[in-house]
Structure formats: structure tokens, C-alpha cells
Amino acid sequence: MAGNDWINSYLEAILDVGPGLDDAKSSLLLRERGRFSPTRYFVEEVVSGFDETDLHRSWIRAQATRSPQERNTRLENMCWRIWNLARQKKQLEGEQAQRLKKRHLEREKGRREAVADMSEELSEGEKGDVSADVSGHGESHRGRLPRISSAETMEAWTSQQKEKKLYIVLISLHGLIRGENMELGRDSDTGGQVKYVVELARALGSMPGVYRVDLLTRQVSSPEVDCSYGEPTEMLPPRNLEGSISELGESSGAYIIRIPFGPKDKYVAKELLWPHLPEFVDGALTHVIQMSKVLGEQIGYGHPVWPAAIHGHYADAGDSAALLSGALNVPMLFTGHSLGRDKLEQLLRQGRLSKDEINSTYKIMRRIEAEEIALDASEIVITSTRQEIEEQWRLYDGFDPILERKLRARIRRNVSCYGRYMPRMSVIPPGMEFHHIVPLHEGDLDGVLEGNEEGKSPIIWGEIMRFFSNPRKPMILALARPDPKKNLTALVKAFGECRPLRELANLTLIMGNRDNIDEMSSTSASMLLSILKLIDKYDLYGQVAYPKHHKQNDVPEIYRLAAKTKGVFINPAFIEPFGLTLIEAAAYGLPMVATKNGGPVDIHRVLDNGLLVDPHDEKSIADALLKLVADKQLWAKCRANGLKNIHLFSWPEHCKTYLTKIANCKPRQPRWLRSDDEDDNSDSDSPSDSLRDIQDISLNLKFSLDGERGEGNENTDNPLDADERKEKLEKAFLSWSKGLSKQKSGSSDKNDQNSGAGKFPALRRRKHIYVIAVDSDSSSSLSDAVRKIFDAVEKERTEGSVGFVLATSFNFAEMRSFLASGGLNPTDFDAFICNSGGDLHYSSSHSDDNPFIVDLYYHSHIEYRWGGDGLRKSLVRWANSVIDKKGGTGEHLVVEDEDNTADYCYSFKIRKPGSVPPVKELRKLMRIHALRCHVIYCQNGSKINVVPVLASRCQALRYLHLRWGMDLSNVVVFVGESGDTDYEQLLGGVHKSVILKGVCNEASSLLHANRNYPLSDVVAFDSPNLIQTNDDWSSSDLHASLEKLQVL
User: Fold this and answer.
1) Would you say residue 627 lies in a domain?
2) Is the pLDDT of residue 718 over 70?
């Protein structure tokens, strides 16, 4: 078996010494082998799928042992170790089969229930095969724009886009990112993704209709990396493109924007970035707000220009993009690059690490949850191949290809999906730069290594040609690292066993760089040794080249040499996720032979420049190579097809498809800033008049501004219907808030701080905002905490320089009851975040009857993908299924709290806290049903709040930053030792956090015991923005803590 020849050799050695051993000393394996072939069994059945690094080292030591008895003992021990590996492998295969079966059953059940909830019968189109109406690029042919096939069509498309001036935000957080001299391969975080996002940003910035592109990443000011990574801004100038491409539209260009977050003087691996992501989101939010205002002055006629889309790359950026797009209410795109569930499955199959060890090393569960969140929030998920969708994304709870097809069919028929949403999967192959590639012309192909050209030949040509006895023969080129997955041994075997192929062609293997095989990793060394043995076995000297070194800029010359000899490029990998080298080779005029598994299928469908083969069939590989090498007409046709179609993988083509997808997204932006909601030419009503309008309308509607749901619409005196009245109410609220804003210039600072007639809401005039988000076990302990916090800043509170926001899981009625029972005045707080972020209210001193104003625009801001009644029905069905099985009573443990359920928060009571499934199970169930929501267990496990997917208490704070300019760096959040299941979100970001020891310390075991990942994976407890009080803290202790945080 490829990569395991050393196992063959030591087992054969055991068999060879068998007759010379005394029977009493012979191993059990030798005595019982009979007609059994241990070599074949162990190599082909047992060891496959395992990393045998330790065994290989043991075998090396055994070989070096001179004593035959000791040597045989060691070899026997190794056989037993392999037998143990076999047992582990069977156990792992069984566990994997159980996981797959459980996932399949959950998926089938969820799909059936989702379909049952959708009232109409499925059409034949919905029942059909998933791939029936899907093209090779994963999209329906219907409505697809034509490909750019000439300069004229590109010009026509360009003219259509000239009027658009888009602002696009890309996010890629880990690794070292800069525009030039990228340090690709410096570490595992700085690889192909870095090059992809930089080139994507550069290409988008050159496209017509795109005004600005910002690539957001981490600012790294560390002595261990180049100082360029500490620059806050770097412009990405466009490449020197030829022809009409260089004249593409007006653009302010593309920029790398580096946001500082995490340790300021350290370069941090991606696995350790998770606790610092909220800090990035806050910094990115501030940047986007500022840039939107700047662009508004330039191209928006004074109105902010919000991003057309925010595109996250990899799981960490996907999680951040979800929060950022939710805070801004703009569309989100996501590209996974590599996926956590797929990696977890691979690591579990290897059997070297347990699931806990994998999670500890790779933070894999946090990564998977981030990818699920990205699925929840994304409008579009961009992949490179269809295989990525069908074999990797389908592993996730939030995506089901079959259910996605059913929902898509219903949307086409304009039929309700009952609150169910699935992101659109779009296959857009990565773009490439072709402007620097000059393929050889037909005339150049005739003179192979003529004497007058030899002096001009690149050095790498000589390094390769020195291996060949006849360098004029066509070259079969493979370019891959020495990895068993790349299947290079099968290629060498196919070449060695096909005599006609050996007579017609040479084989070149570019397998990375090496100085000494012994210094390579064990896997790479084993692979290379296997290839060298095969070369010797088939006596391929003079026919196979395997140079030790090459530079990155040598690769184009290697392609040119293969094309010059009329050769073929081959990728025989068992599975190839995409196959970028196939596109590179085609750009230089090389036909291809490639694996039929994965991305090459899509590439071949577009380029039509070669043959696909079964990588497990060596004869098939040899036949395909021979066919292309021997048939000159076929070779010329494949070459011509590749050169003709290669522009379909260019960056302009990639960006055109990309921008078309963005154009198909439903536009979203902050509603109160839309131009159609504003009328700058009309005189605004005075604040007091507008407030009276609000109160009059709300009374007539019986729509109480305290947020409670009305019993009905019995009022027959008002002729307006509900929607018209609500719209009028919203306009009155907007007029009031705008009127207050316009009056601020005529008020003195002193009057602003001491009267309610100043800025609205009051938090706009505060120097600092203190957010009380203590999830206390009782109202009395919460009241005590509030009183102590008030006492700690009594002086600043009296001066009016600090304001307070109460953020709880209470609904509005519970919140008002809490204020009354604690003797607190509503005007003690500037704002109230209720229902775990489902509602937002402001206090007002204009009316004693209704001292609360509900922010109606907040609802429109968070309603993205809110499932409405369809979600509620699914939640009720789940609640009815949760019964007390242990007690034997069959009592329902979860019941709907109809009295306290709000429009954007469905509430449920838990009768026996601790007896219901953990929150992660309910989140998983909702995702399987394609219902996007944020499930929160709160009030010490006695209540469940379900709010929109991008709503939370922390997101409400970002909304206040966006809506009213509340500086997040001047915000202090007070929390207990534990809290509701959204507790972790309150501990990160640019705001300060104070953990009150001894408060809400019982909730941890009930609500957080079944977490997917430890709290330390998502909270930076060593952050200078986070501080903990003593156990018996007092107001003076709290004052001292605030002084340490420099907020007093």
C-alpha cells in the first residue's frame, strides 16, 4: 500500500527468518500463519488510515539491532501493536457509523417535520433529484447571466454597472496579510487563503460599479513579524491589466484595513483568536460607520453609503461577519475555505486523538459553532466546487441539500416557507491572474531545446532535463507535495507498467523542496522513498525527473517547458477539493489528466481540455496519458480548448459572477437612515408635539408603549388599519427623535445634563454608559446589585455624566414590576434591553403615564430571518415532546408562556430546571428544521427566550452605538459570575466588563454544563478590559475597580 512499504519490508523480514527460528521461540504470528498472508492483511486492511510515525521509528530501531533474537522480539512486539491498531480502527469505524446513522435519522426526522409544516403538497420539481436542474457550477441555468466571452460582452456588462458605486467589506482574520511579497507558507495560517482574499479584494476594486473594497484583518505590531503588518491601512493598487480590462469603471480602489484586537505585541495562531473576536467586531463596526459617512459625502449625496455585502472568509471571520452584518443590518456572504466538521471526521478516523484532545488542540467545537452561525446569517455561501457542498456542507445542522431544494422550489412558486430559510450555495471557482502568462505559439512548439536556445533557457529547465536520456520526448508533469493523498505512487506504477507510454514520454515529479530525506517528516520521507523504490523497480532511470529544489517563480517556467515538449499535466489525487494547478497548467497550453473525484470535474466541464480518470485504476491513468501523448490531434484540440476557455477562471469573470450574486441579495441597511424615510426639505415638528402625536396614536390604537401585547383591535373610532397606524406611529417617533437632534445646538451643555429636553435618548449626552446585565437568581439580589452600582458612582450619576442601561431577560411587564418592587424610577435608566435583546425601550420624562418609548426601528433591524408563526409552532411542538420520563408522570416539562410572549421573543416556562435538554440540542433542532433563531436559557434555567438569530443583549449595545453614537469604549458592562446562556457575549469587545463575584454563581452548573466548548475558548479572562471584584464586594470596592478600568 502507498506510503506503507516499510511495513511490507519488516513483515517480509519476519517471514524470511521463520525457518531458522527455534519453534519454542518463534512468534505466535509465525506459528499460526499457515496460508494466511500477514503482509497483505496488515498493510492493506489494518494500517490504512493511521499515522504510523511511532511504529516507523520502532522499525528503524529494530533494523539497527544486531542481535537476531532481540530484533525478532521487537518485530513481534510491533506486530502486536499493529493488531491493537486494528482493534482501534474497527472501534472507530463503528463509532463513525453510529454518528452517521444518528445524524441521518435526525436529518430525516427534521426534514419530514419541516415539510409537514408547509401546507402545500410538494410539486414534482421539488421531489426530483437534487442535481436535476443544477449546472456544473451549482446554479440553475435559469436567470444566469451569460459568460464574458469577448471584449465586446465585457464592455457591455461594464456599461451596465457604471452607475453603481458599491462598498464591499471582506474579512480574513488569521495569518499575515499584505499586498506584496506575501509570506505564503510561513506558517499554517499564512497560506492560500491569504493570497485568495488579497487578490479578490484587488480584483473587486478594479471592477466597474465598485467604489471601494475594504479587506479587514488583524493588526499585528510584534517584533517577531515585519513592521508592515502593523500599518493600519495599505492600498492595493490594481494589476496592470491589458485591453479593456484596464479601463474598468471608476473606483477608489481596494484597501487592507488592519483592526487592532487581541494581544497588542503578539502574533497569535488562529486557534487562540476566538476570545478576541468581539473586540474585532466592535473595531470593525466603528470603521465601517466612519467609512460609510465618508463615502456618503463623496458619492452618497450626504447619505451614508453602507456596505452592499460583508464577506467572511474561514470560520473565525464568518462568526465576526455574522455579528457585524447583524449590527449593521446588511447582507452577509461566507466562504469556509476548509470546514471544521470535515477536519473533525478526519482526525477521529485517524484515531490518534480523542474528541476532547482534538478540541483542546484545534478548538474544533468553537470553530464548528462559528460555521453554523455563519450558515444562520449568510445570504450566500460561496464554494469552489459542487463536491464541497455535497460532501462537506451537508455535514452541518444548518444546511440540508434536499430541504434547500424544496425551499428554493417553493420560493420560485411564490409559496410560503413558513419561516424557514436556507442560504444559497453558489459555486464560484477562484480567480487567477493571467495577464503575465504568454502561452507558447504553435511555431514555438516545434523547436524543442534547439542548440541556439540553450543558453537562454531558464535554470530550472536544465535541472529537469539532466535527468532524461532523451529530453525531447513529451513531458508528463505532476506538481504536488509528497503526500499519500496525492497518489503519486499510482502514477509512477502506471508509467512503469505501460511500456508504450515509457517509450513515448518522460515523467517529471515536482514534489516540493528537500535537502535531506532523513530530515523530512516521516510521512513525506516514506512517500518519497516509495517513489524512489518504484523507479528502481521499473528501471525508470533516464525517464523520470525529481529535482530537489525549485523556487516559486520557477513554476511558470516548468509549465512552459512541459508545453514546449507537447506534454500533459496530471493530477492523480484520490480527492482534489479544487485543483488550482489544473487551471494554471491550462493557461500555459497543457492538456490535463485528472482525478474524477472533486473539483477537477467542474474544471473539466468548463475547460474541456483533457480526460478524467479513476485514481485507483492505474491502467486507466496510463491509458489516458498514452491517448493524449500519442494522439496529436486530440492533444492540439485539448490545448486549444483550454486556452479558449481559460478566461472563465480569470478574476474579472469571478468578480462579475460574484457581483451578480450580490445584486440578487435583498438590499438591507439601517432603516432610519434610508433616503426614502427622510425629507430634509420639510420642517420637523417640535419634539414635544411629536411626542404628543406618539402618545395620542398609541392611545387610540391601544398600542401601549410599555411593550405589552394588546388584547385586540376593538377600537372602532380610529379609521386607520393596523399597518397604517403603525407606520404613522413610526413616523411620529422618527420626527420626534430628529426634532430633538436638531434642537441640540440651541441648548447649553448644562441644560442638556439637567433636563429631559436635551438630546434624546439621554444616553447620547453621557460620558460613560454603565450596562447592568446581571442575571441574578432573584429580583431582590438584582436590586441590591443595582443599588450598590448606583452608590459606587453617586457623584457622577448626580452630575449626569454617566447613564445606565438595564439589560435582562425580563419582558417589559416583568421589568416594570422589578422597578416598582425595587423602588427604582424609570428615569434612573436611559434605556432598557428586554427579552434577552428582543426589545429596546428608552426612558422619557415627558410623560408620567408612559415614561417608556419603544424603539420600533430596532425591531426592523433585528427581524432578519425571523421565523414568525412557523417558528412558534415548531417550538410549541418541541415543548410538547419534552415530558418527565423519569418521574413516570408524563408531565410536560416545557410550556409556552403565552402571556409574556412578544412579537420578537417567544417565551417558554421550564417547570423542572435541569431536566430539559441543554440549549445546544434545541439550537441544533431548530437548525435542522431550517429555522434561524437565537435560543437562550435564562433566569437560572426556569425560562427559555427565543429571539431573532442576530439579536442579543450584546448586539443591542452595538445597535445603540450605530443608532445614537454611543461610544462602546466608554461602556462598562456589569455581570455576575455566570448567567444566561448568552452570558459569554457580554464579556468580550472594546467595552469594559466587571464580574461581580458571588452574584449568580449557581447558574453555571445548570445552564453551562453541556457547553460544546469551555468558556475559556471564547472569553479572554486575561484581557485588561475585564476585572473581577472580591467575593464580598461593596460600593467602595466597585468604585476602586472602575478606577482601575480608568472609567472614573
Assistant:
1) yes
2) no
